Amino acid sequence: MNLNVYLSGEIHSNWREQIIQGCQESNLAITFSSANTDHNESDSAGDVLGAEDKSFWRDHKSAKVNALRTNTLIERCDIAIIRFGDKYKQWNTSFDAGYCAALGKPYVTLHSEDIIHPLKEVDATAHAWATSVQQIIETLKYISK
Amino acid sequence: MNLNVYLSGEIHSNWREQIIQGCQESNLAITFSSANTDHNESDSAGDVLGAEDKSFWRDHKSAKVNALRTNTLIERCDIAIIRFGDKYKQWNTSFDAGYCAALGKPYVTLHSEDIIHPLKEVDATAHAWATSVQQIIETLKYISK
Amino acid sequence: MNLNVYLSGEIHSNWREQIIQGCQESNLAITFSSANTDHNESDSAGDVLGAEDKSFWRDHKSAKVNALRTNTLIERCDIAIIRFGDKYKQWNTSFDAGYCAALGKPYVTLHSEDIIHPLKEVDATAHAWATSVQQIIETLKYISK
Amino acid sequence: MNLNVYLSGEIHSNWREQIIQGCQESNLAITFSSANTDHNESDSAGDVLGAEDKSFWRDHKSAKVNALRTNTLIERCDIAIIRFGDKYKQWNTSFDAGYCAALGKPYVTLHSEDIIHPLKEVDATAHAWATSVQQIIETLKYISK
Amino acid sequence: MNLNVYLSGEIHSNWREQIIQGCQESNLAITFSSANTDHNESDSAGDVLGAEDKSFWRDHKSAKVNALRTNTLIERCDIAIIRFGDKYKQWNTSFDAGYCAALGKPYVTLHSEDIIHPLKEVDATAHAWATSVQQIIETLKYISK
Amino acid sequence: MNLNVYLSGEIHSNWREQIIQGCQESNLAITFSSANTDHNESDSAGDVLGAEDKSFWRDHKSAKVNALRTNTLIERCDIAIIRFGDKYKQWNTSFDAGYCAALGKPYVTLHSEDIIHPLKEVDATAHAWATSVQQIIETLKYISK
Amino acid sequence: MNLNVYLSGEIHSNWREQIIQGCQESNLAITFSSANTDHNESDSAGDVLGAEDKSFWRDHKSAKVNALRTNTLIERCDIAIIRFGDKYKQWNTSFDAGYCAALGKPYVTLHSEDIIHPLKEVDATAHAWATSVQQIIETLKYISK
Amino acid sequence: MNLNVYLSGEIHSNWREQIIQGCQESNLAITFSSANTDHNESDSAGDVLGAEDKSFWRDHKSAKVNALRTNTLIERCDIAIIRFGDKYKQWNTSFDAGYCAALGKPYVTLHSEDIIHPLKEVDATAHAWATSVQQIIETLKYISK
Predict the structure, then answer these.
(1) C touches G (3+ CB pairs < 8 Å)?
(2) What is the DSSP secondary structure assignment for residue A110, as one 8-state letter?
(3) Helices (H), chain E
(4) Which of B36, C11, C34, F66 is the most buried (most CB within 10 A)?
(5) Alpha-carbon distance B113 to B102, whole Å?
(6) How far apart are CA H61 and CA B18, in angstroms?
(7) Residue B132, exposed/middle/buried by CB under 10 A (0-12, 13-18, 19+)?
(8) Angle at A36 between CA A33 and CA A38, to 5 degrees
(9) What is the pLDDT of residue G31?
(10) Mean pLDDT, to the nearest integer, of A56-80?
(11) Looking at residue D145, what is its pLDDT?
């Protein structure tokens, strides 16, 4: 079974690469996608459309240019992986989770045990919760059979 | 014009009461709704269905009982107000924003200027960003005409 | 908060009446509905449209006349209660659960512990699982606030 | 005409293999899919995500991991075959039928004559009822022309 | 149970009035609606928008003005009655049936036995087939309970 | 521009073959599809599922087996051609037109001038009306550029 | 038949008031709505949310605050009247027409004959084209019967 | 990331060719599409279906034949570019923008600074505003990564 899997969330560790490599080693027919994970490129995505004095509008333009890409990718995916790390607000990640939920796209969360409570609404709508990359890989192997 | 307005987010200040009172003083035909804002009641919403040893499952059950209520309210609303305070993770709030976005429900964010950057994706999809309760009231007055 | 609640499932005990009475005693603003729970009336719903020699077609006509009613009621409900008793096949009940799931209608299951395993797919999509009528009433009280 | 056909239901006889082989012998351009039909694998699908003391939660996790797979497959199929055998509750099978019905996915039921009555609602929404694998194969041949 | 019922089809007998009267005598909470059944008014519905030399465009304009009304009524109805008489082409009636089918609006056909064969596709998607006004009234009584 | 075109309607002349050949001669990237146009095969499509004494049920079963095929084809098409000849009731053809209309599938009608009036509702929702196969071919050439 | 009618377009003549008055004189059960038609108020709708140096962002904020109102009104309407005057760009008016078209909301255009050609795409999707307020009133009378 | 991009608007400059060439030079996996940009061909698209005396109906027929093509292309696109030049009414362009908005298709506007104000509603729903072809190319490069 071929799958499109969208990888949403934390950009400060190499969890994406680990999942992709683990799935490749098992020859799974999965196409992975994600937002631009280069922090600077992402923050400046809208700069080509003209400079802004206010940070709000600079952020606004960049966020919308990124959304051109991510909305399309989320619409196309079969499953999303929603990853929360231990730092930063990561509000865009739970925004993606809510967006997937309303579209009926199933998702799996990936986060450590110490943030169970603040993520309870996000986890309640998830199809699964994993604490390690290896669990995600095993789950993708299982459903790709 | 009558409106259903869903108030999502922070439960540690009285912003909901201020908005409701401000709109009542202007006799706006707005029906407000929100999740259960009593923290303890909300956390124990699923306890009636049986005790759980693991905090994950206790949270899971309570979050889903609350979702029975909030999903229905969000489906019924015309507009949501998405409020971020200066404390806590508030991932359920940006989850609500993403959920509204995918349903095509317009929302207005309410937060201070110092969290513009981490909220850029949430604000990019918003119809407006306000920094004070008074701005929300004025906006609701305007659109209720 | 007013609610439309559809009561699906077992017709051999008075669980519907108990729920309705329990909610009335608390003055909840809930409108309850259900399929025709009179077994003979339900089975003969299509007879007015002409007799059939084959039981398949008699069943077919009655099931479709009943569906005229139940499809409309399920479309209108906010929440469904899905009740499994300890006898009979009750395939129409899990059919209703699947129908609700695909429509995005949240539902709560009501069944005893000894049928957890065969109901695991139905429960996995439910917003809650209750084992007693009293738990259903308490849950409806909570979300009606 | 190429088709995606989802095979839902009984896992204790080789009806899936018979249908697939019969269609292959006629060189039909049909891609078949189904849930994991290995009972043990299916029941333990969620074990990789951590052990559970309560059977309810073990079942819950496994059912949801399986749903990650089956929801995607049902969304992609053009037609489903809904098979009821003569044993077990098979509530997940009629759940699938209801799910297909609400999505507008046409399905064909496959079951013997002695369970016509309890399946009347499931059959009423079906596009056809077959009693033998051979009838399913003939029907797929006809619509694949 | 209150219902909106749309009455589509033949305008040369008083079947609508009979159904409405029969339901009123039983105090059913049904709101009936239909297209304009005055043939001349219906054919000239677009004349107010300017005269046309070609009959095609006169028909076109009138049909579209009527559709302003009927599309809204069909969208609002819970159930449609689709009536075929023994004369005229009545293509608009089966058009309504197809329109209802694709919207998921259940309908009941009303026609005599001698046109079963040409109506087989229309009947196959119907929830019921009646041959007399009295059967329609009985069916509406049953589902209105 | 590649297109999927569904050819609905009359089965007593070779208009389908003419359109297909005309488009092939211009090398248009169009995939054509249609219901089974063999009258006997179509009428007996359900016979494999068991004999029926009543013609209503025989027709019912065959119409539904055919719908398994045609519903899928109509869902997949970009455009439909809706052809009315000068004989027979052809209610299934206007049913297809209504079905396409509600799904938002654009269609072109093909019929002679003398049935403009009874087809006014079907034509009013069409994107174009043609009186000859050649006009259909020219239109398909134009939009395939 | 009660109707919700949205009045979109030109704000420099009193066509809205004429339509509303004409319908009131006939006691039609129509609820009319429209965007804020006070040009200054509309242009400054977002000013309460903070001043902007760039006119683009001031316009952006005001347009989005107005959209909070108009999106809701268009979602609620049964029919829209789309009015083009003889001055200004009026791009928001044809934007509304396209928005209605994609939502399946029928609309009637109101404009003089000299702008037929540039409005051909907008008129092609309309249910009717009127050149005078009186024609709109007559059409609303007809469909309100 | 492969993309389908629909190019809507002005047909009097070579902005389409510039964008296509710019993207080809960077080997982007983008499939571009657009309405027929030959003014005469577009205006006469319906002529093959018969001559019309009134310019309204000639325009009507041509606009609808063109819509057969453009509706399909817009449904298939991931992103639209909405281009306004400095001449002509261009109401079909903002109609396309409104159509995309209601379908949830993200779009980028391309226009000079002097028409910001009349385009404020169109820009408010856009994901980005560009003033030069080069900015469009850079944005497409960024999101195609």
Answers:
(1) no
(2) E
(3) 15-25, 39-43, 55-76, 91-103, 120-125, 133-144
(4) F66
(5) 25
(6) 56
(7) middle
(8) 135
(9) 98
(10) 98
(11) 86
Q: Is G52 exposed, middle or buried (0-12, 13-18, 19+ CB in 10 A)?
A: middle
CB-CB contact of B63 with A97 (8 Å): no
Q: Is the pLDDT of residue C125 over 90?
A: yes
| Neighbour count for residue A96 (Cβ, 10 Å) | 27
H103 C-beta neighbours (distance < 10 Å), count: 17
Give yes or no for a contact between H30 and H140, defined as CB atoms under 8 angstroms apart: yes
Give how far C54 is from chain F: nearest CA, Å: 9
Residue B145 scores a pLDDT above 90: no
Instruction: Work out the number of other CB atoms within 10 angstroms of the CB of residue C22.
Output: 17
Which SS3 state, helix, strand or coil, does residue C63 take? helix
Residues D28-72 pLDDT 10s = 999 999 999 999 999 999 999 999 999 999 999 999 999 999 999
Q: What is the pLDDT of residue D45?
A: 98
Round the average pLDDT of chain E to a whole number and report it: 97
- DSSP 8-state class, residue D45: T
pLDDT at F117 over 90: yes
Q: Does ipTM exceed 0.85?
A: yes
SS (H, E, C) E10-44: CCCCCHHHHHHHHHHHCCCCEEEECCCCCHHHHHC
- What are H100's two structure tokens? 């995309």
Does F92 contact E89 at a Cβ distance shorter than 8 Å? no
CA angle A32, A38, A39 (to 5 degrees): 130
Name the amino acid, one letter, at C53.
D
Question: Hey, is D109 helix, strand or coil?
Answer: strand
What stretches of chain A adopt beta strand conformation (E)? Answer: 3-9, 30-33, 79-83, 107-110, 128-130
Q: Among all chains, which residue has been given the structure tokens 């049928």?
A: C115
Q: Mutating which of H49, H52, H54, H64 best tests the E interface, going by the most E Cβ atoms within 10 A? A: H54
Answer whether G107's CB lies under 8 Å from G32's CB. Answer: no
pTM, full prediction: 0.97
Q: Is the Cβ of F53 closer than 8 Å to some Cβ of chain C?
A: yes
In angstroms, rounded to a whole number, what is the distance separating the alpha carbons of residues C15 and C10?
8
Taking the C-alpha atoms of residue B129 and residue B33, their distance in angstroms, rounded to an integer, is: 20
pLDDT, tens digit, 9 for 90 and up, residues C20-70: 999 999 999 999 999 999 999 999 999 999 999 999 999 999 999 999 999
Is residue H85 within 8 Å of F145, Cβ to Cβ? no
Return d(Cα G82, Cα G76) in angstroms, integer.
Answer: 16
Minimal Cβ distance to H122: which of G56, G91, G113: G91
Q: Is the dihedral of CA C50, C52, C55, C57 positive or negative?
A: negative
**Residue H19 carries which side chain, given as an amino acid letter?**
I
Distant-in-sequence, close-in-space partners of G50: CB < 8 Å, separation ≥ 6: B131
Residues of E with Cβ-Cβ distance to F56 under 8 angstroms = 113, 116, 123, 129
Positions in chain G short of pLDDT 50: none
E72–G106 C-beta distance less than 8 A:
yes
CA-closest candidate to residue D93, choices D27, D1, D15, D31: D15
pLDDT, tens only, H45-72: 999 999 999 999 999 999 999 999 999 9
Token pair recorded at residue G87 = 């001055």
What would the 3-class secondary structure string for chain F be? CCEEEEEEECCCCCHHHHHHHHHHHCCCCEEEECCCCCHHHHHCCCHHHCCCCCHHHHHHHHHHHHHHHHHHHHHHCCEEEEECCCCCCCHHHHHHHHHHHHHCCCEEEECCHHHCCCCHHHHHHCCEEECCHHHHHHHHHHHHC
Helices (H), D26-132: 39-43, 55-76, 91-103, 120-125
For chain H, first and last CA: distance in Å? Answer: 6
Size of interface A-D (CB pairs under 8 A): 43
Number of cross-chain residue pairs from E and H with Cβ atoms under 8 Å apart: 4
The DSSP string of G10-76 is --SS-HHHHHHHHHHHTT--EEEE-S---HHHHHTTTGGG---SSHHHHHHHHHHHHHHHHHHHHHH
